[in-house]
Amino acid sequence: MLVMRRKRGEAIQIGADVEIRILSVNGAKVKIGIVAPRSVPVVARELELVREANRAAAASFPDAVAAVAEALRLRGNS
Amino acid sequence: MPRCSTRYHGEMEYPEEAVVSFGRGLFGFEEERRFVMIENPAARPIVFLQSVATPELCFLALPARVVDAEYRLEMAPEDLEEIGLEPDAAPEIGGDLLCLALITVRAGGPTTANLLAPVVVEMRRRRGVQAISTAAAGYSHEAEFLEAAGGIGCS
User: Fold this and answer.
1) CB B57 within 8 A of CB B29
2) pLDDT by residue for chain B (155 residues), tens digit each?
3) B136 — alpha (psi -120 to 50), left (phi > 0) or beta?
């Protein structure tokens, strides 16, 4: 992974079309501005993780109810 | 009374006021805006989050505090507004606010609960949102709630 130090107001250019600008820094929170063509999807990483998690949850196998009940029972006993 | 086919409970009748509206759908299922929550006494505390439009789409969910008794709910302002609350409200689980973790069961794998993105339902307005938790604790999208991972596959 390439690591760069940037200050507030500075930017990073990725390729010809994507610019990432550090708008503000407040403690542990960073506000970032992204300029990219419409064809480049920009989502927070956790959103993509949650999409994948939801698809996996929806695909739970047919005995899932019994499996969850069993998981709860085992946990209750631990 | 309207009827819908469900994944786990066959054909069911449901009162229109039982429908929970998700204005943004769920992540990865953005077109699914209407769900009913089915509770089956034999399966308690599991909540079945059944799509009204798609019979085969039914999430298994558990109250977040069943998964983690210490679970704290912190929501972004836009998620609070989505269910009709003030953007600076401090959401408290209980009362009108139901907080569910979606469960994933894998054949031969661990059963996990998504505490990063809880499904939050405002029961009075019947409005729901899948929130991304902003809790500093940093919840995982697949917290294992079963210690012996995989142990359930053989039962």
Assistant:
1) yes
2) 888 899 988 898 888 888 999 999 999 999 999 999 999 898 889 999 999 999 999 999 999 999 888 888 989 888 999 999 999 999 999 989 999 999 998 887 788 889 889 999 999 999 999 998 876 556 666 665 543 333 333 32
3) alpha
Type of residue found at A42: V
Interacting residues of B126 by C-beta distance below 8 A, sequence separation 6+: B17, B18, B19, B20, B21
Q: In Å, how far is A55's CA from the nearest CA of chain B?
A: 7
d(CA B38, nearest CA chain A) in Å: 13
Q: For residue A71, list chain B residues with Cβ-Cβ distance below 8 A.
A: 111, 145-146, 152
DSSP β-ladder status, B19-22 and B34-39: antiparallel
For residue B122 the two structure tokens come to: 């405002």
CA distance A65 to B45: 11
Q: Model pTM? A: 0.79
Q: How many CB atoms lie within 10 A of CB A67?
A: 22
Q: Which two tokens stand for residue B96?
A: 């009108």
